[in-house]
Write a structure and sequence with these properties.
The chain is 28% helix and 24% strand. It is built from 14 helices and 22 strands.
Length: 527
């Protein structure tokens, strides 16, 4: 007999197979000899009380051995001759997982990526960090793997109703991710491991008969004579790429794509997004608060760097943490040289002395109405851009970012001196109240005071704010029909992922890519 069971054990004992068997036997009221195996399905840490436990969801075998596990494999079936082509614009998680699913379904993916391959892309991060120069088609946002490749690789998602989350995790493991992501409740790959995984996925796509083209920037659309069907795309080098379906998975920072679509007469919609700052603390401060450590007590070896999630609503606007990076770094995520944007990342070991998270306030479409007459449906992008340019001016150039201690932000004074930070380009003292819109800064102040009650020290003397975090999501949605997933006015165009407004992270984008590929197969392949 096989049964699933929730097991709660002190964290020091939770990894011991015998302890799991004993607890399973106790719960099932059976002799331990009848417990033939316990397989971990999912685990999380419960640190709500001073005594820390692990919550384990397990498969328990009674009177029979556990069934053998099938190891994930990267192999894909070779494409048949004459497989219908699908153009995929963008090689982030939405595009790559769409390509994998296309191959499984018998479609030939042709991936067009504006940036460089993941190996070459790595070298373009150095001039950003060291000289403040942003290569505008190869940076933390653009290039093979998308924004997640060099900004953390967190896989935690609540999008379980959108598709097979476990299948996405298994695909990552098949291409080199640690098997622990299959069981961790908050899985994380790490920016040091993701590049090799992304490279392996690309190699599998090509080996099966797909195509991947780098430095191939889409600049126009090929449409039918009546303008109602998309026939393909045009790229900056003058080439034309034709296919019966085009999947657009360009990410939330490809503003030129929104402008191109708008100029081509493709209907777009405004949507909510969020802006704010990165808040950085010493990791031991977060550990002490989340693990209830005594003064001077260090995080026990064997426990991961502590994480947090904070959220509230203040005057009809969400105020929340975003993309929390325990043991992480703050990185420059601008895509043009006249702006400063910050984001967060962690390596797989999460061993930086700092913890950081986005600390943001939601922006509704009506908040950008002052720019509506000039910019129309792109008013949110113009609003974002203006804040990023002001942030660059406040930082003083070379990707330096304006910064302020939390206590000084609350008191309305400059910080001198500023504390150490993980942000490599450097920080400049600035009163962030004068930089952020009033509605954002006032809600941030209220949120900081509120969150201090949840995490002592969150708004304390060691807390630092670094501006500005603006790329939480796209201010624009590319509409699509609920069933066919095609644009309602342009057949053959399949908006996908974060850039289209249908995802919010690596896993949800990957799931949306798979779903779009399945919709394309339903339209192109005989039933």
């Amino acid at each position: 007999m096989l049964t699933e069971l929730n097991i709660r054990l002190p964290w020091q004992q939770a990894d011991a197979p015998e302890a799991r068997r004993r607890e399973a036997a106790r719960q099932l009221r059976l002799p331990i000899r009848r417990i033939k195996g316990v397989r971990l399905l999912k685990e999380s840490i419960d640190a709500r009380q001073r005594r820390i436990f692990k919550q384990l969801h397990c498969l328990v075998a009674v009177d029979e051995p556990l069934p053998a596990e099938q190891a994930p494999t990267p192999a894909l079936p070779p494409l048949p001759a004459g497989a219908p082509r699908v153009i995929i614009v963008g090689s982030g998680p939405g595009g790559l997982f769409a390509a994998l699913r296309c191959i499984e379904l018998g479609l030939q993916p042709v991936v067009l990526e504006r940036g460089k391959d993941v190996s070459a892309r790595r070298f373009d991060l150095q001039p950003i960090n060291c000289r403040g120069i942003v290569p505008e088609d190869s940076n933390y946002c653009f290039g093979e793997g998308g924004a997640g490749t060099f900004s953390d690789g967190k896989l935690f998602t609540r999008a379980t109703k959108r598709g097979p989350v476990a299948e996405v995790y298994r695909t990552f493991v098949a291409h080199g991710a640690a098997p622990e992501i299959l069981t961790d409740a908050h899985p994380h790959i790490g920016s040091n491991r993701l590049p090799n995984i992304i490279r392996s996925i690309r190699q599998a796509i090509i080996a099966a008969g797909g195509e991947v083209h780098f430095r191939t920037k889409v600049t126009g659309l090929l449409k039918s004579a009546d303008g109602k069907r998309l026939l393909g795309v045009r790229t900056a080098d003058g080439r034309e790429w034709q296919a019966p379906a085009t999947l657009m998975a360009t990410g939330h920072s490809a503003r030129d794509v929104y402008r191109m679509l708008h100029a081509e007469g493709v209907a777009l919609e405004r949507k909510a997004f969020a802006v704010g700052v990165r808040i950085e603390h010493p990791q031991p401060l977060i550990d002490a608060a989340m693990y209830h450590l005594r003064p001077g007590e260090h995080r026990p070896e064997g426990l991961p760097a502590a994480r947090y999630t904070l959220s509230t609503t203040i005057r009809n606007r969400g105020v929340h943490s975003f993309c929390m990076c325990p043991g992480g770094f703050i990185v420059p995520a601008a895509t043009e040289n006249d702006e400063v944007v910050v984001n967060g990342m962690s390596l797989s070991r999460r061993n930086s002395p700092f913890a950081n998270a986005g600390f943001v306030v939601s922006i509704h479409p009506e908040d950008t109405d002052t720019l509506l007459r000039e910019h129309g449906v792109l008013s949110g992008i113009a609003w974002q851009k203006a804040l990023e340019q002001a942030t660059a001016h406040a930082g003083g150039g070379m990707q330096k970012a304006p910064a302020q201690r939390v206590q000084d932000f609350l008191a309305g004074r400059l910080s001198s001196p500023l504390p150490r930070t993980s942000y490599r380009p450097g920080i400049t003292p600035w009163d962030l109240t004068t930089l952020l819109p009033q509605g954002v800064s006032e809600r941030m102040k209220e949120g900081l005071r509120l969150f201090e009650r949840n995490i002592p020290g969150f708004a304390g003397e060691d807390a630092l704010l670094i501006g500005c975090e603006t790329r939480t999501s796209s201010p624009v949605r590319i509409p699509r029909e609920d069933t066919t997933l095609q644009h309602p006015e342009l057949a053959g165009l399949y908006p996908c992922g974060e850039g289209a407004g249908y995802a919010g992270g690596i896993v949800s984008a990957a799931l949306d890519g798979r779903r779009c590929a399945e919709a394309i197969a339903a339209a192109l392949l005989p039933h």
